[in-house]
Amino acid sequence: MADVVLDERDQRLVAALQCDGRLTAERAGEVLGMSARTVHRRWQALMAEGACRVIALPPRPDPAGALLLRIRVLGGKRDALAAALAARPDIPYVDLSASGDEILAVSWTRPGSRDHLVFRELPATRAVTSVTADTILHVFSEAAHWRHDVLTAAERSALTPAPAPVSGTPDQVDLDLLAALEDDARAPAAAVAARTGHPESTVRRRIARLAASGRLRTHVVVAPERLGLPIDANVMLRVAPDRLDAAGRALAAHPAVHGAFATTGTANLQAAVWMRDLQHLYRFLTRDLGALGVDGAETVIIGQAVKRPGKAPGGRAAP
Questions:
Q1: C-alpha separations of 149 from 11, 27, 164, 266, 278 in Å
Q2: Which residues contact 161 (CB under 8 A, 6 or more apart)?
């Protein structure tokens, strides 16, 4: 069941939750042309079977300055090393290449610091044959920004809340509510009140305020295979400096791209993509990237996503 592609209706319902993690069934039904009862029933079924869930993203460092790691490792030790990396709180992403000899990971680190993991721990590991660490200079898009391309522009606009300015600093009540919503961002106010001990009326009002201000950042966890996107790949690009910003912005707008970053290193622009098949990946490389004036590209197909937001270490890929 984990690899069965969701039908068009369910994919559109998942995409609606990407626009607003706390979207009501009534509003989704109104925009998508379904009954609220159908929307509610299908969301319940999708979440009950584990096809998708909505989480609240915890506060985390700015991705700019993080390290993108490429670790070549002896095959017999790959899984053990990947598991050790995934267990670290400062490593939010761990992928295994389909070729079987490379681990790709993200490490939170302070810009310009001499990272202990990169310079001492990994080189001292016998199984590691090489380590490359590129610093993220600029973020064009990341996983939480990605939207499954099954809604019209008008539908997506209608389902996406208007941004509101963020002011002030969250107090302890806000922090309690955000923590309570991390595993289930759609939890009703009554459940959050019971978990936190705060009055339900306060919880309801505060959640609405957190959502309107953008402090409650929701993320839909769904394996891309269920959306008909089984090809997961990282593409490392070389772009002339005067074209870098325009190329990065164009990649961020591409429906297949769920992460685009300007980086240090030989490849100064990196993109993470989900594709329907290898033919679509080929078209992306030859047609879409060609139009951006890319000077060179290296593609690594991901064989397993070990750790990503909303998945415990060892889990399958999730946007």
A1: 9, 20, 25, 31, 18
A2: 20, 211, 212
pTM here is: 0.87
List, in sequence order, every residue forming a beta bridge with 163; answer none if it has no partner: none
Residue 199, C-beta contacts closer than 8 angstroms, at least 6 positions apart: 193
Residue 265 phi, psi dihedral angles, 5° rounding: 100, 180
Within 10 Å of residue 247's Cβ, how many Cβ atoms? 23
Residue 66, Cα to own-chain centre: how many angstroms? Answer: 15
Please give the Cα distance from 14 to 51 (Å, whole number).
9
Alpha carbon 60 to chain centroid distance? 13
DSSP 127: T
Using 70 as the pLDDT threshold, list the residues of the chain that sit under it.
1-3, 111-120, 123-124, 166-167, 311-319
Q: Can you tell me the distance from the alpha carbon of 246 to that of 255, in angstroms, rounded to the nearest whole number?
A: 16
CA gap 295, 312 in Å, rounded: 37
Two structure tokens written together for 283: 């078209």
CB-based contacts of 45: which residues, under 8 Å, 6+ apart?
A: none
Cα–Cα distance, 310 to 287 (Å, whole number): 33
Query: Which tokens belong to 16?
Result: 């609606």
CA 118 to CA 113: how far, in whole Å? 11
Do strands 269-275 and 218-221 pair parallel, antiparallel, or not at all (unpaired)? unpaired
Q: What is the pLDDT of residue 314?
A: 40
CB neighbour class for 194 (10 Å; exposed up to 12, middle 13-18, buried from 19): middle
CA–CA separation, 104 vs 131, rounded Å? 10
What's the confidence (pLDDT) of residue 319? 39
